[in-house]
Amino acid sequence: MNAYSPKEYWTGVAADFRSADAAGLAPVLHPGAPDWFNRLIDRLQFRAVQRALAIADVQRGARILDVGCGTGRWLRRYQDQGLVATGVDATPGMLAVAKEQGTTAPVVAGEAGCLPFADAEFDCVADVTVVQHIPESLQPQALGEMLRVLKPGGRLILLELIRGNDAHIFPRSSQDWIGQVESCGAKQIGSFGQEYLLFDRLFVAAAQKLTERSSSPNSTQTAGTSAHSPSARRLYWETRHMIATLSAWTDPLAERICPARFATHNVFVFGK
């Protein structure tokens, strides 16, 4: 088995899913998921990023770098809010989709661990679910690079995963993310939980258990009626549509009553 390479992985995702939806969300959110699901996750993330920008007190006209800009969704939004945005991404295929999506902000090819910018070039650096896809041993280097290109007094915004497991995700606990960034010389200004989706997570966990049971060697189900069949997949997403919509609607309440560690992601704002 070949070692995981973030650049190779996202190059494949960009090639396979660049035309999956009109908004270019599939390559940067959940490839293979229905369009409605990616739009729901995008709305939740947009609300979180707006809140983070307010905490960071980023002013109109500020220079902001979007690390791992992907298909350009944040670049376009930053520009809409009066920020001077620049994007960097390691995957040329992602940058091509960004241009196709109408992104007018300058974008350059480059990796998070070696940003092609001068020291102290930006007022704000933002990273939305990027470092979580970099192997843990390389994450400190990427975080250090983000702070290197940030001006003194500037703000670093991170939205990163704090739970889960997969071949291409490397989450950390909330305190671990904070410790990693502060060890590079920044100071935390604020943080909050993002994407609780409690009912949706319970449903997914139950569906996974059912799939594991039906796929076991002792199962009497045939392939045509297994949880992986097209009809079962359709039923899964139809049911999940209702549950995920309800979960998203209740997320503000979940955030008020649940600790941030109960979320799937946390948002962090740091000052240099």
Summarize the structure.
Helices cover 42% and strands 18% of the residues.
CATH class of the largest domain reads Alpha Beta
Question: What's the domain count?
Answer: 2
Structural class: alpha/beta
Shape: globular
> How would you sum up the major sheet?
7 strands, mixed
CATH T-level fold name of the largest domain = Rossmann fold
Quick check: average pLDDT?
A: 92
Could you list the spans in which at least 5 consecutive residues all have pLDDT below 50?
217-227
Count of helix runs: 8
Using only CA atoms, what is the Rg?
Answer: 19 Å
Order of helices and strands: HHEHEHEEHEHEHHE
Give me the CATH architecture of the largest domain, please: 3-Layer(aba) Sandwich
Determine the CATH superfamily of the largest domain.
Answer: Vaccinia Virus protein VP39
Query: What's the N-to-C terminus distance?
Result: 40 Å
Total number of beta strands: 7
Strand residue content:
15-25%
Task: Give an overview in words.
This protein has 272 residues and is α/β, with parallel strands linked by helices. The protein has 2 domains: 202 residues, Vaccinia Virus protein VP39 (Rossmann fold, 3-Layer(aba) Sandwich); 48 residues. 42% of the residues lie in helices and 18% in strands. The chain contains 8 helices and 7 strands; from the N terminus they run ααβαβαββαβαβααβ. Strands 3-2-1-4-5-7-6 form a 7-stranded mixed β-sheet, with helices on both faces. α3 links the parallel β1 and β2. The longest helix is centred in the last third of the chain and has 28 residues.
